């Protein structure tokens, strides 16, 4: 009986997650300003990103040069690079991610240049 209940629970969770993935893009505000955000840690994961900002956005692989990853942070470093992804998020989604990242207490959101273009990135406070 427990096995059947657990199986039903997980199937329900899967159906709910799929419904959110299919429905969420249709209810997103389209008129808000879009921001480019470089992420290099947990926000690369679609499920964690959805938890952080209730957003399902496309991602583009990207690499920032002149930085290295140290734990949960990136720091300037000559001849180094950090792989991550670029996201296009709305102002509302960016504010939600600020909350997820505990900005400004734990992280600050700063501008960074990648391939000649400016993007937001979260840098851990030291």
Describe this protein's structure.
The protein folds into two domains: 1-29; 31-124, Gamma-glutamyl cyclotransferase-like (Hypothetical upf0131 protein ytfp, Roll). 35% of the residues lie in helices and 41% in strands. It contains three helices and five strands, in the order αβαββαββ. It has helices at 2-27, 46-53, 91-100; strands at 34-39, 59-70, 73-90, 107-114, 117-124. The chain has a five-stranded mixed beta sheet with strand order 2-3-1-5-4. The longest helix is centred in the first third of the chain and has 26 residues, at 2-27.
CATH architecture of the largest domain: Roll
Instruction: Quote the CATH topology of the largest domain.
Output: Hypothetical upf0131 protein ytfp
Order of helices and strands: HEHEEHEE
Quick one: biggest sheet? 5 strands, mixed
CATH homologous superfamily identity of the largest domain: Gamma-glutamyl cyclotransferase-like
Q: What is the count of structural domains?
A: 2
The overall average pLDDT, rounded, is 84
For the largest sheet, list the strands in their spatial order: 2-3-1-5-4
- Overall 3D form: globular
* Quantity of strands, as a count: 5
The CATH class of the largest domain turns out to be: Alpha Beta
Q: Give the number of helices.
A: 3
């Amino acid at each position: 009986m427990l096995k059947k209940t657990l199986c039903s629970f997980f199937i329900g969770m899967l159906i709910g997650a799929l419904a959110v993935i299919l429905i969420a893009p249709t209810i997103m505000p389209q008129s808000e300003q879009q921001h480019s955000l470089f992420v290099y840690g947990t926000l690369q994961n679609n499920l964690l990103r959805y938890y952080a900002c209730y957003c399902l956005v496309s991602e583009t692989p990207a690499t920032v040069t002149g930085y290295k990853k140290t734990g949960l942070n990136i720091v300037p470093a000559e001849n180094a690079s950090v792989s991550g992804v670029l996201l296009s998020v709305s102002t509302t989604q960016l504010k939600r991610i600020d909350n997820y990242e505990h900005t400004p207490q734990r992280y600050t959101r700063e501008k960074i240049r990648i391939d000649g273009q400016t993007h937001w990135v979260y840098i851990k406070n030291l």
